[in-house]
Write a structure and sequence with these properties.
With 1274 residues, the chain is an alpha/beta fold. Among the domains are: 2-120, no CATH class; 404-547, 3-Layer(aba) Sandwich (Rossmann fold); 553-575 and 785-966 and 1004-1041, Rossmann fold. Helix content is 44%, strand content 9%. The protein has 50 helices and 22 strands. The strands form 5 sheets. The chain has a 6-stranded parallel sheet with strand order 3-2-1-4-5-6. Strands 15-14-13-16-17-18 form a 6-stranded parallel sheet, with helices on both faces. Helix 9 (154-180) packs antiparallel against helix 11 (218-241), helix 14 (285-303) runs antiparallel to helix 15 and helix 15 runs antiparallel to helix 17.
């Protein structure tokens, strides 16, 4: 604005001047006869034309008088003019010399001044008062320019130092040349030329002439003089430029003194010829060359911006120092020995090497005292200088080992590497990452660069020194927030960056904040580098939404623990899926369950395009259900999901209405991916050999003959009855009137979905039953529930899920289980009269992640009659923000208490609970001693096992290695055998060495660190996180199915095999099975002393268990063939084992007495625990009807509650149960009673009309429209 106003003022002044000149030219002064009217005398004297009368006004540049002036003013003016004319001959009009007063109104700007000058500036005006200011004028001086060229500028100073270094090397080379051409007896007419040189004289007689005078040829002298002159001028110039006020500081520098010694004598010889052969110690220029080389290396590193070169510089300085000492000693000794024993330059060099290496052969030694004195001086200098250099080198070496050095740019551009950013690196975290990352064949050539701000741990250092990892893993100590450290790790050239949070921190929110800053720094430094971020708290997830892949620990943890309550061992299932394995674990074990369990653990999720696949290419145009069943039947692979080419969402089991297309991406479960599989068609081989082909199950494992015959019979029946049965999703045995004695039939899977075959009532049988056919008793439980989306989300980024909700939000006071309020007077779980068993969650605080525990258990696809009440047992009461988020869910309560308090457990209804989930506490995750963070949790859980043996307890541990202490028994030989098996698998390099631990196999223990591999595996399989979120219910995609489970009962055993079950589910309800959770009895071997003891009481308990098994087997048996029923085979084996134990030689009487005393002690302990619990219940006013004594447990209780993994040793020392997961078992796997099958059920809403999909949630949400959503806590 100031420029604009200045420009405008200048324009106005110029216009006024131009206007005044124009008016003066147009109106010249009038001539009058009276003298006072004369305006100027010169026109009067000359006879010039009238037109020249206007020149005086132009010369004066004064404007004419104003026309507005009054006539009364003229007489006074004229009188003044008359007075002036009388005094002088020239009469001037004063008014013409004054500036014309500008009119009050500012005249308008001419067109040429309005826009052009505003854009171009006021450059054409002469009356511009602006001043041009030049900056940094101090650098324009001659001295500053020289300093910029010689010192400040990196590249020019590098060239100057390179030239200086070359000169010094040249002088040293000329000295060696002069020595080689030197003749000691000829000194070219010098004053000492007549001195007689007696080589045989005594060493005390020194010929000083040959020391001070040498033979120097003219060409050598000329070159040395030229070099000395250049060096002298350069030294003077550098001294002048480096002068800072103290000239003596510059003069007494070692480099300046050496320059004067080596250059001034040669310059003097120019003016005094007799001194041309004087000795000058030019070999001392090697030290100046050393200094120039150091400066040159520093300038070179500064020019290429290499800052971390201290180690290289120190090693270089040490080498140069050794060379200079040896060269100085060799040249000095050789010259001094000219006066004594003549030594060549090589002899002197040999003597210096032998002396400095402390060998000292003594064959070559100095003879005169000057050379001997020089040797002493050199040794003293070496003893002072070299230790300092070595100390500095050792210090830098230690520091470089801590920092880890650099990852070179050349390696980063020619090799592939990933960066792992962590706040603290532990051995478990490192090994999990390395084992999982390098488990993939195409990642074998990758390098891992670890960037950690802390010093490397001793155990980590020991691991990284192993040749397997030392060549591929590089540890760098540094911060991801520093660009220098990111440059050292070459983050911009990395293939990926993994940023992991420290879960063992007390303040997990602070750990997340550090992770967020690391992710921001990495994204800012390397925008194109893919980021794989692990976050702890779900409320912090949206800060790293820009990352390519994000895994929120608490989201996955709580969702997995929730599914463990409705689908047993979901944690084991997902953990095995996200770990890379070849299925070779346990194959050498004598146990059958370990071999099949280890074999099935090798199944993983892979993907392939349909048009490129041999597994699924033939099913183009067929339904998804048809492709999944026939691919499993033919190849043994399980197709679980698909993704359209034009859609980014993965659909798990989209149902039979989804027609497979060539561009679709198929997601399947198999031992290995299709690209690494070979295909051997057995049908062709059998045709060539003349063997009849069954054509049903060409699976990797061959079917028994009776299974093939049974399957062929089934096909025949299917052809007679092709219409699909309109039944519910339950697998029931047909009535006797329908099928008679023939085996039941299974409908074929259709290639194209038939609308009549897919009924909403089939897929939503539970829901329709709940809505239409509920009895009065059941209506009191779920009739008030509605379906809708939760109105309040506790954090940003939670996926909206359609859930069962309350019509009206429950008041906060009604959410408290143990305290009554004005709305409800219930104070314990018994008073509520719940129809289903409770699910109790023990946590320290009500974090936002706990919301993900409730949502999967209240999802819309869960049948209302199967909803379990949820009780949150919290150490600290939740805040109102969390209560606002959960008050819309039905049957969700909280209570303040801990699991180590028996009263709190009883008040929250533990005797009515089906599952107890113990969440790892944040305050105990960090311990002074490693692996002690789980001590309190393990002991508390073990106490609850003793108090409530029928309770299913799911425990989360901080360290996976501590799971061996769950259900711990000191004399359990079978657990010891499993421990040895674990060590063997770990030595083989297995990623799943812990898989054979019984608590993990049964899904009773879980550690969130087991899911770290999910983030690592997503580097190769970018879809794994999405599939895991769909399986756990964290994300809901329209048209995608969900994970659930079904139990094999007695009525379902007619299906016989897993392949037939696959066909049954696909044809009837379009469900895809993916695995089996199996529980079986097992005879755990114990010590020999225990086997030899025969106790009647123990036999009584075993007889009771066997009698129960016999009755169950009698009810389950349908044929006379004993081999057709697995329970009968087990019964016979157990009976044989019992007979063999009875035939053992009886033990001594003392052993029997000790065993009876032990049984009495155990019985008293059980009674004591029972009385303790009952007394506390009576004290709290709770009914004791629900609590039963431990001794009254039956085998059916244990078989139905497989959570223990074994029966309590107080009851039976030998008869136990174990549970494990079989992922994608072979089609000929025989189903057993109480097997739980994992199935992916298609989305019920995908098969309903569009109005029914949207109308119901809208009606359910009408009650929540009037309520505003609270602010989400950040």
């Amino acid at each position: 604005m100031n420029i604009f106003f200045n420009m405008r003022g200048t324009i106005v002044r110029q216009i006024a001047e131009d206007r005044a000149l124009a008016e003066a030219a147009m109106n010249p002064p009038r001539r009058t006869s009276s003298p006072p009217r004369r305006t100027s005398s010169p026109p009067r004297r000359t006879s010039s034309p009238p037109r020249r009368t206007s020149s005086p006004p132009r010369r004066t540049s004064s404007p004419p008088r104003r026309p507005s002036s009054s006539p009364d003013d003229r007489p006074s003016t004229e009188s003044v003019q008359m007075n002036n004319s009388s005094n002088s001959g020239v009469i001037l009009d004063i008014s013409t010399l004054k500036m014309a007063e500008v009119d009050t109104e500012v005249p308008p700007l001419p067109p040429r001044y309005r826009f052009r000058d505003l854009l171009l500036g006021d450059q054409t005006f002469q009356n511009d008062d602006r001043v041009q200011v030049e900056f940094y004028v101090n650098e324009n001086t001659f001295k500053e320019r020289l300093k910029l060229f010689f010192i400040k500028n990196q590249r020019s100073s590098l060239r100057i130092r390179l030239f200086n270094f070359s000169l010094k090397i040249l002088t040293c080379a000329l000295y060696v040349l002069r020595v080689s051409l030197d003749d000691r007896e000829d000194v070219n007419g010098d004053p000492c030329a007549k001195c007689q040189n007696n080589s045989t004289a005594d060493s005390a007689d020194i010929n000083w002439c040959v020391i001070f005078w040498v033979t120097r040829r003219e060409p050598v002298w000329a070159i040395q003089v030229t070099v000395a002159l250049i060096s002298f001028l350069e030294t003077m110039l550098i001294t002048y430029l480096s002068y800072k006020g103290n000239i003596w500081e510059q003069i007494f520098q070692i480099s300046f003194i050496l320059e004067m010694i080596n250059s001034v004598p040669f310059i003097i010889t120019i003016f005094w010829c007799p001194l041309r052969n004087i000795f000058v110690p030019v070999f001392l220029n090697c030290w100046l060359a050393k200094g120039a080389l150091e400066n040159m290396i520093n300038d070179f590193h500064r020019a290429i911006q290499r800052t971390h070169s201290a180690m290289f510089n120190q090693v270089f300085i040490l080498i140069c120092t050794l060379l200079c000492l040896v060269f100085t000693g060799a040249c000095g000794i050789q010259h001094l020995e000219r006066a004594g024993k003549r030594l060549t330059l090589f002899d002197s060099f040999y003597f210096c090497i032998v002396t400095f290496s402390t060998v000292g052969y003594g064959d070559v030694t100095p003879q005169i005292w000057p050379s001997q004195l020089l040797v002493v001086i050199l040794i003293c200098v070496a003893l002072v200088v070299l230790p300092l250099q070595f100390e500095e080198l050792a210090y830098l070496w230690m520091e470089s080992q801590k920092l880890g050095g650099n990852y070179s740019r050349h390696r980063a551009q020619t090799e592939k590497h990933v960066v792992l950013c962590v706040s603290s690196l532990k051995i478990d975290l490192l090994m999990d990452f390395l084992n999982e990352f390098y488990a993939h064949p195409r990642l074998q050539d990758y390098y891992v660069v670890i960037l950690c701000p802390t010093e490397i741990d001793i155990q980590v250092r020991r691991i990284l020194q192993i040749p397997l990892w030392s060549q591929r893993v590089i540890y760098l100590q540094g911060s991801a927030l520093k660009d220098q450290d990111l440059m050292r790790a070459k983050m911009d050239d990395a293939e990926a960056c993994f940023i992991l949070s420290s879960r063992n921190e007390v303040d997990r929110t602070a750990a997340d904040h550090q992770t967020i800053l690391r992710a921001w720094a990495a994204k800012d430094f390397a925008p194109n580098c893919p980021l794989y971020v692990q976050i702890l708290k779900p409320e912090n997830k949206f800060h790293v939404k820009f990352a390519d892949h994000v895994v929120c620990e608490e989201e996955f943890k709580y969702a997995m623990l929730a599914l463990n309550c409705v689908c047993p061992a979901t944690s084991t299932l997902v953990t095995l899926l996200v770990h890379t394995s070849r299925g070779q674990e346990g194959q050498l074990s004598p146990e059958q369950w370990q071999r099949i369990y280890g074999r099935c653990s090798g199944n993983e999720v892979y993907h392939i395009r349909l048009c490129d696949s041999k597994f699924f290419g033939e099913y183009d145009g067929k339904s998804f259900t048809y492709a999944s069943f026939h691919a499993h039947k033919k190849y043994g692979v399980c197709l679980i999901g698909v993704k359209r080419e034009d859609n980014k969402s993965i659909l798990l089991n989209p149902g039979p209405r989804h027609i497979m297309a060539a561009p679709d991406t198929c997601y399947y479960i198999n031992i290995t991916k299709e690209e690494n599989s070979a295909f051997i068609f057995k049908q062709e081989e059998k045709h060539n050999k003349g063997i009849p082909v069954s054509g049903l199950y060409d699976a990797p494992s061959r079917l028994p003959v009776h299974s093939i015959i049974a399957s062929m019979g089934t096909v025949a029946i299917d052809l007679q009855n092709p219409s699909p049965p309109e039944e519910s999703s339950k697998l029931t045995l047909p009535t006797e009137n329908g099928a008679g004695s023939r085996r039941p039939s299974i409908a074929p899977v259709l290639e194209i979905a038939d609308s009549s075959a897919i009924l909403p009532c089939d897929l939503l049988s539970d829901q329709s039953e709940d809505e239409n056919n509920q009895s009065d008793e059941e209506g009191s439980v779920g009739s008030d529930f509605v379906k809708g989306y939760p109105p309040n989300s506790p954090y940003i980024g939670s996926s909206p899920t359609l859930c069962h909700l309350l019509p009206q939000k429950a008041p906060f006071c009604c959410l408290r289980l143990d305290k009554g309020c004005t709305h409800s007077s219930f104070e314990d779980a018994k008073a509520y009269g719940f129809k289903n068993k409770l699910i109790i969650v023990s946590a320290e605080t009500a974090g936002n992640g706990l919301y993900n525990f409730i949502v999967p258990l209240r999802a819309y696809y869960r049948p209302r009659k199967e909803l379990n009440p949820i009780v949150l047992l919290l150490d600290y009461p939740p805040d109102n923000h969390f209560l606002e988020a959960i008050c819309c869910f039905p049957m969700v309560y909280f209570m303040a208490g801990t699991i180590d308090n028996l009263d709190n457990l009883l008040q929250c209804g533990i005797i009515y609970a089906d599952n107890l989930v113990v969440v790892d506490k944040e305050s105990t995750m960090s311990a002074e001693e490693d692996y002690m963070a789980d001590a309190k949790t393990i002991v508390n859980v073990q106490t609850m096992f003793r108090l409530f043996p029928s309770l299913s307890i799911i425990t989360e541990l901080t360290h996976p290695s501590n799971m061996r202490f769950m259900q711990f028994r000191a004399k359990d030989c079978y657990s010891l055998a499993l421990s040895k098996l674990e060590k063997i698998e770990r030595d083989k390099g297995s990623n799943l060495a812990f898989m054979f631990r019984l608590p993990f196999a049964a899904g009773r223990v879980f550690s969130i660190s087991m899911l770290d591999t999910l983030l690592y595996q997503s580097f190769v399989k970018d879809y794994m996180i999405g599939i895991a979120r769909l399986l756990l219910g964290l994300d809901t995609t329209p048209g995608s199915g969900y994970l659930c489970a079904m139990k094999i009962t007695e009525e379902d055993l007619w299906i016989r095999t897993y392949g037939r079950l696959f066909q049954k589910l696909c044809s009837s309800s379009s469900e895809i099975p993916i695995g089996i959770y199996r529980t079986e009895s097992h005879m755990f071997s114990t010590s020999e002393s225990q086997n030899s003891i025969n106790v009647p009481q123990g036999e009584e308990h075993r007889e009771r268990g066997e009698s129960w098994k016999e009755k169950k087997a009698h009810r389950n048996s349908t044929t006379s063939d004993q081999s057709e029923h697995p329970l009968l085979r087990k019964k016979s084996m157990q009976w044989a084992r019992r007979l063999s134990r009875k035939n053992v030689k009886p033990s001594s009487r003392a052993e029997r007495i000790s065993q009876q005393r032990l049984n009495l002690y155990r019985r008293s302990e059980r009674q004591e625990l029972s009385e303790l619990v009952k007394n506390r219940m009576k004290h709290l006013g709770l009914p004791t009807v629900g609590y039963e004594d431990v001794s009254n447990l039956t085998a059916s209780d244990v078989m139905n509650r497989v959570n223990l993994g074994y029966l309590q040793d107080e009851m039976n020392d030998h008869q136990n149960t174990l549970s494990y997961v079989l992922i994608n078992p072979p089609p000929d796997t025989v189903l057993e009673l109480n097997d739980i099958v994992y199935i992916i059920r298609s989305d019920p809403l995908a098969h309903m009309p569009e109005e029914s999909q949207t109308g119901q949630p809208r009606r359910n949400q009408q009650d929540f429209v009037s309520e505003t959503r609270d602010e989400t806590h950040l």
